[in-house]
Design goal:
Elements: H1 3-28, E1 34-38, H2 45-61, E2 65-69, H3 76-83, E3 91-96, H4 98-106, E4 118-133, H5 142-151, E5 157-160, H6 166-178, E6 183-186, H7 190-198, E7 204-208, H8 209-217, E8 222-226, E9 252-260, H9 265-279, H10 282-289, E10 293-298, H11 300-321
Parallel strand pairs: 1-2, 1-3, 5-6, 5-7
Antiparallel strand pairs: 3-9, 4-7, 4-8, 4-9, 4-10
Helix pairs in contact: 2-9, 4-11, 6-11
Pfam family, one: TctC
Protein name: Tripartite tricarboxylate transporter substrate binding protein
Keywords: Signal
Length: about 325
């Protein structure tokens, strides 16, 4: 047997063994606990949805799936930890347009690349944004908010879930379109923002609907406008911005599941199929949509072009609003 033939035979056997090993890995996966990182504090809408999916994943995969909240640096701390995690499928992240888009333009050193370091598992859908105001603020409509803001530019403050978050950029878009100026107060997630808004220490927020739905339904704050083309069935009495004369400031914040990019493809496929199947379960759909989240489930191939388009859209908003980069520690 010639040397070249021996080498080809050896390479063939090696490739076959690697294929069998990969197949076996996918069949056996998971054999231990899976960690789902939420890069925001516990209690917010992202956290709640992640916990619903994690609970179902545990049932379907036969292994516990725990949620770990790693907040900080506009979601970059938790997201960075997953980018650097062992790419074996046992560490995934529930990210969004901030962690896997805007941070690339707004943080000087996010510590990861949203495209190169991650493989999408499933697009879940989007959070619609709703303008809510403190009960102490004397406005009940969007035109009244605009009028009040124009009386004393910068006096009103608006809260967001962090620099580069959907609530931040959506409000910057709104101010650009309406010509008003309010002062930005960023928070580390939805829960502390909502607390301060209810206490009257924050005037306004263009928050994701799930983060404030229960509070304005309970009369703890006032909802004055939905930044969406149509009204939401969970809040049918809240008029849209378009109904109030603002036609070009709609915004939504998408959310999706990701794994480290070098995770073996069979493992990615198993995680992806599991999550997609869970998001399509009638009881899960009901629990999530009741939060005010709009489900729009996409597989990885459908999500990738959507992701690219969204990143470009919000990069343009950031440039138009002249938002400066900040430290990403």
């Amino acid at each position: 047997m010639t040397t070249s033939l021996t080498r080809r035979l050896a390479l063939g056997l090696f490739a076959g063994a690697a294929l069998l090993a990969t197949s076996a890995t996918a069949q056996e996966f998971p054999t231990r606990i899976i960690k789902m990182v939420v890069p925001y504090p516990a209690g917010g809408p992202t956290d709640v949805i992640a916990r619903i999916v994690a609970e179902e994943m545990g049932k379907d995969l036969g292994q516990n799936v725990i949620v770990e909240n790693l907040a900080g640096a506009s979601g970059a701390v938790g997201t960075r930890s997953v980018a650097k995690a062992e790419p074996d499928g046992y560490t995934i992240v529930f990210g969004n347009n901030q962690t896997h888009g805007n941070n690339m333009f707004l943080l000087k050193e996010p510590g990861y690349d949203a495209i190169k370091d991650f493989a999408p598992l499933a697009g879940a859908g989007a959070f619609e944004h709703v303008f809510v105001v403190s009960n102490d603020l004397p406005v009940k409509t969007i035109p009244e908010l605009i009028a009040l803001a124009k009386k004393d530019p910068g006096k009103l403050n608006y809260g967001s879930t962090g620099v580069g978050s959907g609530s931040h950029l959506a409000t910057e878009l709104f101010m650009t379109r309406t010509g008003i100026k309010m002062t930005h107060v960023p928070f580390r997630g939805a829960a502390p923002l909502v607390t301060e808004l209810m206490a009257g220490r924050i005037d306004v927020s263009n928050s994701t609907l799930p983060s404030v739905l229960a509070q304005f339904q309970a009369g703890q704050m006032r909802a004055i406008g939905l930044a969406s083309p149509q009204r939401n069935p969970q809040a049918p009495d809240v008029p849209t911005l378009r109904e109030q004369g603002i036609t070009d400031a709609d915004a939504e914040s998408w959310a999706a599941f990701f794994a480290p990019v070098k995770t073996p493809q069979p493992v990615l496929d198993k995680l992806s199929k599991t999550i997609i199947a869970i998001l399509k379960k009638p009881d899960v759909k009901e629990r999530i949509t009741k939060l005010g989240f709009t489900l729009n489930v996409r597989d990885p191939e459908a999500f990738k072009p959507y992701l690219a388009k969204e990143i470009q859209t919000w990069a343009d908003v950031i440039k138009a609003a002249n938002i400066k980069t900040v430290e990403g520690n």
